[in-house]
Amino acid sequence: MTPRLLFCHTLFGKNTARIGDYRVAHGYEGVEWGLDGWRLMKPEGRRRQLLERLRTAAPRCSVHAPYTDLEIGHRDPEHAGAACRILQDYLDAAADLGAHHVNIHVGTFSPDPEELCHETLARNLTTLMEHALRRGVPLTVENLRGGPSSDPGSFAALLRQTGAPVTFDLGHAAGCPWVMEGRGTVVDFLRAVPTRILSAHLYLIERNDTHFAPDTLADLAPALDALTERGCDFWVLELHALEALERTRRIVDQYLRERGERASN
User: Could you tell me the pTM of the whole model?
Assistant: First the structure.
């Protein structure tokens, strides 16, 4: 299995021409479009123009849906229902774009437990998965640093209930309380995921909303081995600064090169 390597567009802003040029020059297979703060155009003509810009820059892509003000598990049913309907619209657009998958957050920004309703979360996640299936674009759920997806036990329970596949975020796992308090490792967390790991976000750790690059191959190799064992071949280097992205790419390339050499011996 040779992983497909993508990068997150956000370090280049909305300059799709520059994003496309960088992708080609550095041999990336595609781009993950992180659309928090970059909303869809509602008029159909404008929306088609936007999707064509994204398609031109990256014929292969994934879509990270917005999350700042969208919570499908909110205890307020009107908010949760509106969030679900908005995300259905993003699924439609991603299907039109031909995206590999759409990734969503649940329980973003560590809400208090009484702000969430587990039954609503599971019901709306199932609704979104059914809509995604009809449109032919997979939906994934990402593990976060806080909230119900930051603990392997509660995350696994949601995944078993819904069957949702996962975008496994290495940096979120490294920075979550379960790992930081020494209850387990990033690899332990990853291996506790009971459903398919469809994609991964690669970087070392998130602190104060900053994504840090690994220093050496040893920082990432165990997690990359575990992703490979799980058959995850869609790797998004989710760095928000150019130097950090390029340092991470060098380490990932080293990993793939050394793995290839071991396989050939």
Answer: 0.97
